[in-house]
Amino acid sequence: MVIVPLLFLVSLVDGPGHYDFSGPMAGFMVDGGIPGASTSGIEFKLIATNGGAMLAPTEFDLTNADWKSPLHVVLSDAKIDAGHLKAHFHFKNSTGSVLEGLRLDSSGVVESYTDTSGAAPGTKTRVEPGALPTPLLFGDLPPDAEATPVDVDLGPITFSPTATQVAIGFKLSGLTYVKAFRPEADYTGGRLSVDPKGLLCAQDSHGIWRMNPDGSMPLLAGKFGDQTDMAIVDPSNGDIVGSPSNSKRYQRYSAGGDDKGLCPTDAEFQTWPRQPRIASNGDLYLKVGDSIIVLRGDKIFKRVGGIPSVNVVDGDAYFDVAGDGTIYDPIPAGIFKIDPAGKTAKRITFGPDWHLGRVTNVQGVRLDSSGNLYVLEGTADGRTECPRVSVFDKAGHFVRVFGRAGKAPAARDFLPGSLGTGVTDIAFGADGTVYICCLPLGPQISMFKPF
Questions:
Q1: End-to-end distance of the chain based on CA atoms, in angstroms?
Q2: What is the residue-wise DSSP string for 403-434?
Q3: pLDDT tens digits, one per residue of 200-257
């Protein structure tokens, strides 16, 4: 069987600006944009037999532990025509949950054939990876909403003379909105982190709250002065690092509350440190003036700054640190990738722009366990648009966008699953759960699970 790169050709439906992302991904990206690969997804296969004359099944019930009911997917009028699979792809969100960031990929083609040669004759398989130049997007869907139908033209597909069947694979991925919650009634919103036991930790002006992964049983685990300015949990040992409001010093406590001392003195910092991030090895990263200072224990290990022609530490958008020490630092209209030594910086995303693969009004970035970069983007006008989260792979290639809860702008009517009027931080649970601190009608934490 010879299979050349697969093509998905679909009809592009006009939609309201950057909200109705329904159709081929390439249609919403700037020229030359490269789609990144989804690292999750529910797979299903269409089986072609009799040289492609018969196709079955063409209806699929996709299941997920977070859904009340299966998602019923239909490939209607499916046929193999001149070596191409042609069909209409459509579904209705029957899961009972808000589904966001939906995209469909080809997951590969497998031909089963009869081999009568050699010492072990019988049925064997040949695998060809799906080469999909542009995934299909279906955006964010509330319960009972129908996805915009698309016409699929996939191929060419060639059957060998001894082929018994060809399995054409698809993968549907996205996120399920689970719920929104507040740790307690006076929660004011702030930074999020997850401790080594997988407990969610949320900082606000009262201190840092530690709670179960589902948001239940919050306890005030640490308080810094009369009002906590910034606090975060060390993922390597569970230490709590934070500072009182208007302080130039950081205090470190053990997970059990033991005082472990102050970070460097005011004179060493010279100005207010801000935006703490802690790498997986326990190094503490702080923005101080025009540099990022890295502390190992209670000593300054290195300074990152002064990169020629690039002021990568300007502004208050939150940066993040990869396991190898690579820094991802945003400005309102882009993100810079700084090498672990702090010597070079490469801009991997651009803006301000609402095209997919571009970013605007960046509030912060976070890396998940797979190395995907989640970018929190604020509202464009605060009235007809809501914040969104754009996801990129390690190389800066666009993967998906979510956070709007529906295909149309929500304006001031905040739909379940939308991010309201603002976003402040993001964290990831041990099982991949995505937590986002957002500001709809008061600070809350929205919880999503990828599939």
A1: 32
A2: --SSSS--TTS--TT--BT-EEEEEE-TT--E
A3: 999 999 889 999 999 999 999 888 878 888 899 999 999 999 888 888 888 888 988 8
| Rounded Cα distance, 424 and 402, in Å | 16
Between the CA of residue 138 and those of 89, 92, 93, 269, what are the distances in Å? 11, 11, 11, 48
**CATH number for position 289:** 2.120.10.30
| Total length of the chain | 451
CB 375 within 8 A of CB 328: no
Helix (H/G/I), strand (E/B), else coil: 441: coil
Compute the mean pLDDT over every residue in the chain, rounded to the nearest whole number: 85
Of 178, 197, 216, which residue sits at a domain end?
178
Predicted pLDDT at 3: 39
Residue 72 CB: number of other CB atoms within 10 A?
A: 15
Strand order from edge to edge, sheet including 334-338: 320-321, 327-331, 334-338, 345-350
Q: Distance of CA 308 to CAs 292, 313, 345, 366, Å?
A: 15, 12, 9, 25
Tokens 């009568």 appear where? 116
**Final residue belonging to a domain, choices 178, 199, 221:** 178
Asked whether residue 111 falls in the same domain as residue 199, the answer is no
Q: Is the peptide bond before 121 cis (omega within 30 degrees of 0)?
A: no
Residue 4 placed within a domain: no
Q: Any alpha helices (H) in 301-398, and if so which ranges?
A: none
What six digits make up the tokens of 441?
A: 């009608």
Closest-CA residue to 426 (of 363, 345, 384): 363
Q: Which long-range contacts (C-beta less than 8 Å, at least 24 apart) are formed by 240-247?
A: 240/201, 240/208, 241/276, 241/278, 241/284, 242/203, 242/207, 242/208, 242/276, 243/273, 245/205, 246/272, 247/272
Strands 291-296 and 299-305: antiparallel
Of 425, 204, 438, nearest to 320 (Cα)? 425
